[in-house]
């Protein structure tokens, strides 16, 4: 074994660092971070009381604040003769600049969403800085085991859902563990695999290696259960790369030696365990109904093979993602220098999806680099992405070059493993949004901290600096608790409103008094939630749809108006405002909503039909009839326009318009024979003979 390196070099803070003052000062913070990293992916909310990632984000924020506070308190308690060194690195500029730009974009973009983005990057930057201090204290192994513990917990929930049909947690796409969507679960799990494999190689006990190999096999099987294609592709690339890295760093400092027998035995246990688990069929009705196969292996092969199917690119999820990516590119071309503002992608995306799309395809671009560019612009977003990718390539090259000249340290080995994890994260980031989710966002920062650990910049902190930091941390903790509490309260209230409305829809024959009581309760819950969080687009829309379905049009209109204030570019919302106002005899607001719709989609079938509807409601039947004739003369033939023309013609006794519309109806929609006969009977007797002849001659 070579002699230990000097105390001022990064290698001296390797994973097995002795109990130095720095080690003691950072011990509490290390345990807080390790516990947070383990609990965030493994905990969820049974039932639909709040969104899963809201809980995870709150846990992550509180864990980071606790770790920061412990660092500062221990630094203040240190003897005066011991100087306190904080470590910094250029990578800290990545979250810091994004946070500052988000704060600035509050002045000209969507202030609430920009503020939320600033808070998110501030929290992730604090996590990166705290991890850097903890790693310099020699606690890397503790963080690695925290990552693996979180992966085991999440995988256990996923396995219980796949094999045991566990239904405690809401599932958009099962098995999703405690992540709601199996894609989120898979993206997290694939990024943990390099750290788990590294933890396996650090064990000395044969029994420990056996248990660890089986747990890693369970995590891999859980990944196969999801069938998430981006994660499976990432794993197919990462696993060979990780194996090569582990082999190259097998003689790193402090790494236990493995004999050929140890390698063969542990590898056999891992492969046999994975093969056994991958062939166990599911008896969950949910999994069976998906039709992707019954075993983890079948599902992964089926889903991976679907990439080669042509319909995947015309009708499948890839076509939907491609639509969002093209819209994001148009958004970037439109505002290349400033972007649309931090967090504002979901506000502006309806403007760039094309005239035929009336609602947002999704709330995220499902491509993190592309969304970052669209929101932050080329100078900020593009510059930061280029800097990050350049540093990752430089770090990988540095690791490779050092292997040829000296025995690598444990810290360098962990750097190489972190690069493998970040490789997986970057791969899945091109088809999802893992940076915005608490568990994968935390792994992102931990990976960057491991790289920064190899070359930090020390800063000597004074007592005044420590006290100021403690005050700032206390304030940040208080703000985190308040914001988390408000988020929980808002989600709880709006979801309670949705659940109450679902009770009405499930029992349409309930007594009127009970119906009124539940309506009042749902209305009170919705108002309470929107007062706390007026920008909850997705949940508020669900409540509004529920009110419309139960006949409470006033409440449905209130919900749509609330959404329109926050998301002014969604055609569906404007159309809903028009129809609800018309149903409530509010012609003025209906006209205002139509003006907003016409500005978004001036020449779509729905806009034309609503225009005629409003003209008719306003008593402008002559103008409406003239516009309908103009449409028909120009070859604009829409079913709704023809029906309106027949109705207006019958109402105004306009035989020419009625006959023309009826002829077009018979010619282009011959399948409507019964409806056409009913309409013919409603016509004046003097018209029927001529219209009957049209009925016979106009049919194709």
Task: Give a verbal description of the structure.
The protein is mainly α and 700 residues long. It has helices spanning 21-42, 52-77, 93-105, 111-136, 140-164, 182-201, 206-226, 229-248, 260-278, 285-290, 296-305, 317-334, 345-348, 368-403, 410-428, 438-453, 463-506, 512-532, 537-549, 553-566, 571-583, 587-600, 605-617, 621-633, 639-652, 655-668, 673-682, 685-697; strands at residues 84-88, 457-461. The chain has a two-stranded antiparallel ribbon with strand order 1-2. The longest helix has 44 residues, at 463-506.
Summarize the helices and strands and which ones pair or pack.
Layout: H1 21-42, H2 52-77, E1 84-88, H3 93-105, H4 111-136, H5 140-164, H6 182-201, H7 206-226, H8 229-248, H9 260-278, H10 285-290, H11 296-305, H12 317-334, H13 345-348, H14 368-403, H15 410-428, H16 438-453, E2 457-461, H17 463-506, H18 512-532, H19 537-549, H20 553-566, H21 571-583, H22 587-600, H23 605-617, H24 621-633, H25 639-652, H26 655-668, H27 673-682, H28 685-697
Antiparallel strand pairs: 1-2
Features of the shown structure:
700 residues, mainly alpha, two-stranded antiparallel sheet, 28 helices, elongated, disordered N terminus
Reading the helices and strands in chain order gives HHEHHHHHHHHHHHHHHEHHHHHHHHHHHH
Oligomer: single chain
Helical percent range? over 70%
Our estimate of the beta-strand percent is under 5%
Structural class by sheet pairing and helices: mainly alpha
The gyration radius over C-alpha positions equals 31 Å
**Overall average residue pLDDT:** 88
Q: State the major sheet.
A: 2 strands, antiparallel
Task: Kindly report how far apart the N and C termini lie.
Answer: 91 Å
Secondary structure tally: strands: 2
Shape: elongated
If helices are DSSP runs of H or I spanning 4 or more residues, what is the number of helices? Answer: 28
